[in-house]
Amino acid sequence: MPDLDLAAGSADRFVGAAAYALVLVLTVEFALWGAFLVPFRVGGVVVPLCWIVAVVGNLAVGRAGGRLAGRLGAGVPGLLWLAVVVPLMTKRTEGDLIIVGLVGLVFLAAGALASAVVCRLAPPSRWPGTAAAV
Fold first, then answer.
1. What average pLDDT does the chain have?
2. Which residues, listed in sequence order, are joined to residue 45 by a DSSP beta bridge?
């Protein structure tokens, strides 16, 4: 007869890993959404919605990652966010540049700061589906 506790532990780990994968997918989506909102204008006036997306998005995915896997789980979405955003700030050979100007720099700084704050406030690291260290 199979050990039901072992099966339950495997299911918990699978659900935890799937939830964390969703956190990483949402991180990429928030990074791209915010990056393409940098040049958003209404009537010629810059509306910095990207700042809100950077802060709220990174706080949300960082908190979710922290609840799933602790401090390391909160930090990885921030690093992934930076890995998506920083290449969008560099000029391509075709001349394309997505994140520009002061609004873009504040977008980068606000997102990085939000990630650092949520990482610092997260509990110690643990892997999804495992018991928390005492």
1. 87
2. 42
Task: Give the torsion sign (CA, 33, 35, 36, 40).
Answer: positive
Measured between its terminal Cα atoms, the distance across the chain in Å is: 32
User: Is the pTM for the entire model greater than 0.85?
Assistant: no
Per DSSP, helices labelled H in the chain are: 4-37, 49-88, 101-121
Residue 57 to residue 34: CA distance in whole angstroms: 9
Amino acid at 111: G
Q: Contact 74/65 with Cβ under 8 angstroms?
A: yes
Report how far apart, in Å, the C-alpha atoms of 99 and of each of 28, 47, 56, 75 are.
Answer: 15, 14, 19, 23
Rounded Cα–Cα distance for residues 20 and 2 (Å): 28
